[in-house]
Specification:
- The structure is a single chain.
- The chain is α/β, with parallel strands linked by helices.
- The protein is 53% helix and 10% strand.
- The protein has a single domain, classed as ATPase, nucleotide binding domain (Nucleotidyltransferase, domain 5, 2-Layer Sandwich).
- The two termini are 22 Å apart.
Amino acid sequence: MTLACDLAAAAWAERVAGAGKGADDLLVVLVGSTVGAGLVVSGKLHEGASGAAGDLAHVKVHPNGRICACGQRGCLDAYASAPSLAAWARDDLRIAAAAARASGKQPGIGRRLLDHAGGDPERITAAAMERAAHEGDELSSRLLDEAARLLGQAVANLIIALNPERLLLGGGLLSGSPRMRRTVIEAVEQNLSRAARAALHIGAPALEEDAAVVGAALIAREALSR
């Protein structure tokens, strides 16, 4: 299955057998190696004209911002996916190191993060950033919080447009980063209109890694029974 199909299947699985059970208007946002959403609208999967509905990864959050794997700049995926977060931290560490060399000083940021990466910037991961932030690492805290705010803003905009009754926030990155998850929820709530917030319940997916497989099986069974 393509990523878009995986997300749609995951959303359907949550709607039929998971934390979105019974919700006719459901938004499932999964954040890990990329950022995406599965949509259930009026009790039916909404995949869009070309199957790309819910492609949060390429929503623009920073004009002329960081370059994305898609070749464009400022996409949410360039900030809030796990690989991009790690790359962002490496870039900021390189900039800080260059500035320190120019001034004849030792770099002052990201020391705890580098410790968690064994001193090798190429081994930095989003998980290492979460651990370092918990220990007070300023760079890790700043980047995790900024990525979460951007993600929360993008999700809030989608909620305002679709007015779902339930939002499920999950995926490997949010599951492994309580700090980021809290900040995403705060940003969603801060950016929602009163009308969109009135009926919304925010939770976590119940099926997680099994959701896409379960959803695909459910969709295939329903297609055969028609």
